[in-house]
Design a protein that fits this description.
- By secondary structure, the protein is an all-beta fold.
- It folds into six domains: 110 residues, Immunoglobulin-like (Sandwich), CATH 2.60.40.10; 87 residues, Immunoglobulin-like (Sandwich), CATH 2.60.40.10; 83 residues, Immunoglobulins (Immunoglobulin-like), CATH 2.60.40; 105 residues, Immunoglobulin-like, CATH 2.60.40; 97 residues, Immunoglobulins (Immunoglobulin-like, Sandwich), CATH 2.60.40; 115 residues, Sandwich (Immunoglobulin-like).
- The strands form 15 sheets. Strands 11, 14, 16, 17 and 20 form a five-stranded mixed beta sheet that branches.
- A hairpin with a 5-residue loop joins strand 42 and strand 43.
- The relative contact order is 0.06.
Amino acid sequence: MDLFSSCTGICFCNRYHPDDPVCTTINGIGQHNEVIENTEVTLRCRLHTESIIPVGRLVWYRNAAEIDSGNSPLDIKTTITRDDHGVPFSCRLEHSGSSSSISCLNSITPDVQYPPQVTTPLNLCVQEGTTFRINCDYVPGNPTLTAIQWKIPGRESFTRHNPIIIDRVNSLKHSGVYTCKVNNTYFNGEQGESLSKTTVRVEYHPKVETLPVQRVKQGDDTSLQCDAKAIPDVDRFQWITPSGSVVNGRRLTLQNVQISDGGKYNCTARNTFCDEIGGYGYGWNYTYLDVLYGPKEVFLTGNTTKKTDESLTLTCTTSRSNPAYIVTWYKNGSPLKGHSNVIDITTTTEESSGHSSFITKERLQYKVTPGDNAAKIQCSASLDDFPKTTSVFSKEITISIFFPPNHTENCLTKLIKATPGTELIVDQLLTLQCTSCSSNPPADILWYMDDREMKSSNQAEHRDGYFNGTISEERLHINLTYKHNGLPIHCVAASRIFSGQTYESKKINLDVHYAPFPADERFNRRVAVRVGKTASLQCQMKGIPTLSIQWYDQDRSELQPDDTRRHVEEDPKNLTQESTLYIKDVRNSDYGIYYCRGENKHGDVEIVIILSGKCKFPVRISPHRRNIHQAAF
């Protein structure tokens, strides 16, 4: 078997004697003997022909030094390091008992590839606001072509090139770990890489934090706190009081604070920079101690009487205080803040010289409605952001709002019939009742019949109404006659304060019932008609409800509707009912008395009409008929 033909690596012997061994590799080394540092490779030594049985042993050498091949001299495994770069590997056939040997016609000289070696400072201390520079130094690798990149704090990728220069260093943005990465590219496309990290510490002078203003109620205890942010940490705090005294420590305690303790308190803080920077860092800030005291009194003034929809103006004034107290307005115990009727709130503050002292005046403009009538208005002075202070209240004032009798929702002046029963009859006493809506002051009640004002002998009565107003109620008594029938009557609620504004009730049309009577007393008459002519006898009556009218002849016989010579026609005219009896071709027997009789449930009446020729004759009327009217002769 030809051992050479079974070689799986690259064979380097191009000239050989059949007895000579050949050096090859089967893994880990490239075409030109490239190998990545710390890669394990297998080296193989082969004879050209199997017919030659080697006498002696095969020995591997690194440069001139023998390599221990163990029990398998043909194949050896070895890890290639950076030190093996350019060093030849070869094998020999050494004859036993002889000093002669046959060397491999070729050798394997590895081209060991390894990454560059990067070095950067481990730590770096810089002062905030200055400029700093970081350089990435390195020893080239193999291959030597090297790329340099930086990753800075706050970013996930490598973006910057060497060196890094940053102006106006900021502790928040630029403190942290800076990583330099250098790399080269191996024969197989893999990357050789080396990383180095530098921790940058940005130091800055103390940034002192205090409350700009600290408020304390007169007589209370308080303390002033001084805090600072710094790198490195603060190693000394000092307070300087308004009087100039110096107190060490972060906290300054004051007891039984008085107005004279007010003023500016300065806090200073110091830290010590690193050796690279050297020296101290200083920072300062102040707290203004504001001593609070409240007003002793609060005064509320203004006009308390207004018409609805007018603007009510009130002024709330505090006595001296520190600070200027906040005024709050109340209506019936509830705050007015945000109320839709508030037109404007104007606040003015007068400050005195010397220690802080203020007088607060606040003017409220409020559009009043009927719902504000009899409301209790009050104002107070307080400090919402300082709960230990006590609110001071003014005295309550009660406002009076004039409003006409129409401001209640869905309220109208009401007119009702107070007389029992549903039917009105002549000579009956009708009582009507008029009720106004709530108003302030109470409304006057006016009466109108057929749009003409009437006088009432009754006085209006009053009771409580909406919005703390008054409801007026008045009755009107009418002795009914037939002339009242059909007349409209209504009442009006009027206010003396709101001139020209009246609020009418709905109209009631009087439906008065009465017994029938002749529409005109003079209508009873004699009708003279010649024989052969047509007679027309007219009868007019009034009465409610509608009358039933019948005609009777001189024999008291009711005229029949099928009489072809005599017939009746009805003609109602408004409240008057007219009935006409027509007699065709008058005969002597037709002359005489005719009776027109009207009747409803309240009574009846007869009208006598005499039909005659040229002569006159006396008429007798039965004394047993009631309510009969005699015709004139």
